[in-house]
Amino acid sequence: MNKQTTGIHHITAFAKNPQQNIDFYVGVLGLRLVKKTINFDAPEVYHFYFGNEQGSPGTIMTFFPWPTARRGKIGGGQVGTTSFVVPPGSLSFWEERLGRFNVEVRKSMRFGETYLQFNDHEGLQLELVEREAGEDSKWSFGGVPADKAIKGFGGAVLFSTVPDRTMKTLADVMGLQKVAEEGDLVRFQAAGDLGNVIDINARPMPWGADGAGVVHHIAWRAQDFDDHEAWRTHLLASGFRPTPIIDRQYFHAIYFREEGGILFEIATDPPGFLVDEEFDRLGEKLMLPEWFEANRGQIEAGLLPIEVRVLEEDRQ
Predict the structure, then answer these.
(1) Are 223 and 267 in contact (CB under 8 A)?
(2) Which one of 73, 148, 164, 313 is separated from 209 by 20 to 30 angstroms, measured CA to CA?
(3) Residues whose CB falls within 8 Å of the CB of residue 315, separated by 6 or more in sequence, listed in order
């Protein structure tokens, strides 16, 4: 069976302080909080979803902000750097904006593209790159107008403990195409127009450690529920041991760990974030799956209060 993912569905990372997490990804980066829910496996922890105006697949950065989380260590078995794509001509806007928020930025070149690299408040490694491909975001917030807004993912840089095996999985199992090599980096590309460019460090990386400031997993797109079931069959035939299909309310998910240690997920595009909230109200209410509704009072009492707010730098 030949399968090809169109690219990244979402990337999920650990954080520590939930308000600081919202302030950075909404207040600084201008993404929309499209869903405020809980970690279904640890309901005492928030699960935030940030993305474009409706959280389209390929735009969704998610976090588990856990106030007691230890600091993580970036290394092998992880997404090392998460790439966001912005419209052509907007990097200078972002360089000025990040500087105004005292975010240290670095410029670098790879594969003929200029990247603006920086860390979030937890140390998570991020970067911005300009590309024509991908639908522009229609969302604006604070000091980020829609014509400069992040479109979604550009892709990711993977850190593997066994990069040859990870690259084989990307090509032979996930259906990405190897398109270039430069120094220690190898570039793969998926068929979509967002979240489709994956670079991998071809040198083995020492193991990282989970905690605030590191990525927990990277999720790849399945077009629908039938395609998702076919992906699970494909993974089993390829020698992996994927989880059963899990209903995550806004998509169905299966998980498996590739041989370089990175936790991969395959997630369905449907049903999306409008399944339980109207477009204009996305992210406003704490949304719980029905099996937790009876415990809403207890769950809400245990979570720190948060708000989506325009930051002082944008009110001056």
Answers:
(1) no
(2) 164
(3) none
Residues of the domain holding 268: 8-315
The CATH number linked to 218 is: 3.10.180.10
* Number of continuous H segments (helices) and E segments (strands) in the chain: 6, 16
Residue 6 identity (one-letter amino acid):
T
Q: How far from chain centre, in Å, is Cα 230?
A: 24
Task: Specify the residue for token string 């840089």.
Answer: 157
Tell me the C-alpha distance between 72 and 181, whole Å.
Answer: 29
pLDDT along the chain (316 residues), means of 10: 94 98 98 97 96 98 96 98 98 98 97 98 97 97 97 98 98 98 98 97 97 98 98 98 97 98 98 98 97 96 97 91
3-class secondary structure, 152: strand
Strand partners, 14: 64
- Whether pTM exceeds 0.85: yes
Write b or e for each residue in 85-108: b if 16 or more Cβ atoms lie within 10 A of its Cβ, otherwise e.
bbbeebbebbbebbeebebebeee
Taken as a whole, the chain contains a residue count of 316
CA angle at 77 for the pair 4 and 70, rounded to the nearest 5°: 130
- Identify which of 42, 36, 32, 56 has the alpha carbon closest to the alpha carbon of residue 287: 36
* Secondary structure class of 121 (helix, strand, coil): coil
Kindly state the DSSP code that residue 294 receives in the 8-state scheme. Answer: G
* Domain contains 163: yes
Neighbouring residues of 133: CB distance < 8 A, sequence distance ≥ 6: 85, 193, 194, 196
Token digits for 257? 């760990």
* 295 close to 47: Cβ distance less than 8 angstroms: no
Q: How many domains does the chain have?
A: 1
Q: Is residue 1 part of a domain?
A: no
Strands (DSSP E) contained in 57-166 are 60-65, 78-86, 106-110, 113-119, 125-130, 152-159
Tell me the CB-side half-sphere exposure of residue 108, using CA atoms within 13 A. 10
Instruction: Report the DSSP pairing between strands 185-189 and 246-247.
Output: unpaired
Residue 2 domain flag: no
